[in-house]
Amino acid sequence: MSEAILETQSITMRFGGLTAVDNFNLSIGKNDLVGVIGPNGAGKTTIFNMITGIYEPTEGKVLLGGKNISGLRPAFITQQGIARTFQNIRLFKDLTVLDNIRLAGHFRVDYGLLSSIFRTKKFHAEEERLKNEAIEFLKIFGLENKMDHLAKNLPYGEQRRLEIARALATKPDVLLLDEPAAGMNPNETKDLTELIRWVRDKFQIAILLIEHDMRLVMDVCEQIYVVDHGELIAKGGPKEIQNDPKVIEAYLGTEQA
Ligand SMILES: Nc1ncnc2c1ncn2[C@@H]1O[C@H](COP(=O)(O)OP(=O)(O)OP(=O)(O)O)[C@@H](O)[C@H]1O
């Protein structure tokens, strides 16, 4: 594994008396594709929420490129290089496909307040650059012929693709995907599997995903972390994980419950 870009050091999240995540350690290299799996309520989303600044860990640290980012605001964490998608797709549904990408590009642009108030030459040049960049993104994702459509009118699979494109438009070092296959049919999931691999190779970034679709996880993830009741119970490659008795028990246990 390459040098770590994202690390969590013993992060713990307590909600009153409930420990949702307990002492969770993770380390992801610059170009790794890693999954977090576990039964419902295991703590997966809470881990994402701590990494992206929605929650500040009760204990422990989140490091991005070796820098402590725990407790920073979500928008600032995006600027630092972590982008995410959500279990329930969150797009600007009443904006066009192009504007969804264009807005994301602003996250890492700074033309200064005065420049944007007075609409200076620099402002217009920057806007033009962002628009062209957004169109390039749409071409890469095969959405350029839909750039004037409202996001809400795209089919589900394309909305998911747009959400991933928008996250990438913030130029992240790490992309977090929260259940990207949720609500997809088998064909869409197959396309998504290829898309995830392709994104990692094309953009040379790290990807961390939460997913219930085991086929997708086993197909794309090189390293898998398994959590149950807030604790890490196993970590390893797909084969190791599938044969791990603790993992099998965690899943069978919940199915029988
Ligand atoms: N804001 C909160 N306040 C109180 N309890 C919470 C909060 N967020 C999560 N929890 C609890 O923490 C535990 C872990 O929840 P989390 O959503 O992280 O699990 P998950 O693994 O993502 O589940 P799923 O696969 O169902 O999405 C659950 O018991 C949940 O009820």
From TrEMBL:
SMART domains: AAA (SM00382). GO terms for molecular function: ATP binding; ATP hydrolysis activity; L-isoleucine transmembrane transporter activity; L-phenylalanine transmembrane transporter activity; L-valine transmembrane transporter activity. The keyword Lyase does not apply. It comes from the Bacteria. One of its GO terms (cellular component) is plasma membrane. One of its GO terms (biological process) is L-valine import across plasma membrane. Keywords: ATP-binding, Nucleotide-binding, Transport. Residues 6-254 form the ABC transporter domain. PANTHER family: AMINO ACID ABC TRANSPORTER ATP-BINDING PROTEIN, CONSERVED COMPONENT OF ABC TRANSPORTER FOR NATURAL AMINO ACIDS-RELATED. This is Transport ATP-binding protein. It comes from Halobacteriovorax marinus (strain ATCC BAA-682 / DSM 15412 / SJ) (Bacteriovorax marinus). The lineage of its organism: Bacteria, Pseudomonadati, Bdellovibrionota, Bacteriovoracia, Bacteriovoracales.
